[in-house]
Amino acid sequence: MIELNVTFFIQLANFLVFMVLLNHILIKPMVSMLDKRRKAIADSADEVQSTEDLVARKKAEYEEALAQARKEARDFAEVERQEALDAQEKILQEARRESEAILKSGQQAMDEQLQQARQQLSQQTSTLAASITQKILGRAS
């Protein structure tokens, strides 16, 4: 059986003192260090999550800006293309007007020359007819 003598109480006191010392020297600092480590890991995880969220937001903003820039570039190219087509059509219309004006002035010049040629021919015909008549009459007489 167990004897309860002074040695038991001394060992019990030693054990209690050792537990108190061990608690203050080893267990509390270790628990404190583990709590700090757990808190640091949790903070790091939160920081990683917030960084991932920031990266996702920045990526979405970048993609939105890129899509907007592409849309603006397409719109700009379409506007420029339409302006070029309009300018081309304007140039073609101007060229048609100029060619029609040149053609009309050429036609008028040809009509004038034709009229002058007819007048000259009419005058020459009269002169030629008079000359032929004189020659014919001159031979006949």
Protein architecture, described:
It is found in: Cell membrane; Endomembrane system. It comes from Desulfurispira natronophila. With 141 residues, the chain is mostly helical. The protein has one helix spanning 6-140. The mean pLDDT is 91.
Summary of the model, kept short:
This protein is an all-alpha fold.
Supply the key terms.
141 residues; mainly alpha; rod-shaped
Main β sheet profile: none
Helix and strand pattern: H
> Which bin fits the share of residues in helices?
over 70%
**Mean of residue pLDDT?**
91
Write down the oligomeric state. Answer: single chain
Q: What share of the residues does DSSP label as strand, in percent?
A: under 5%
Poorly predicted residue ranges: none
- The radius of gyration over CA amounts to 59 Å
Shape: rod-shaped
How many β-strand runs? 0
Distance between the termini: 195 Å
Structural class determined from secondary elements:
mainly alpha
- Helix count, per DSSP? 1
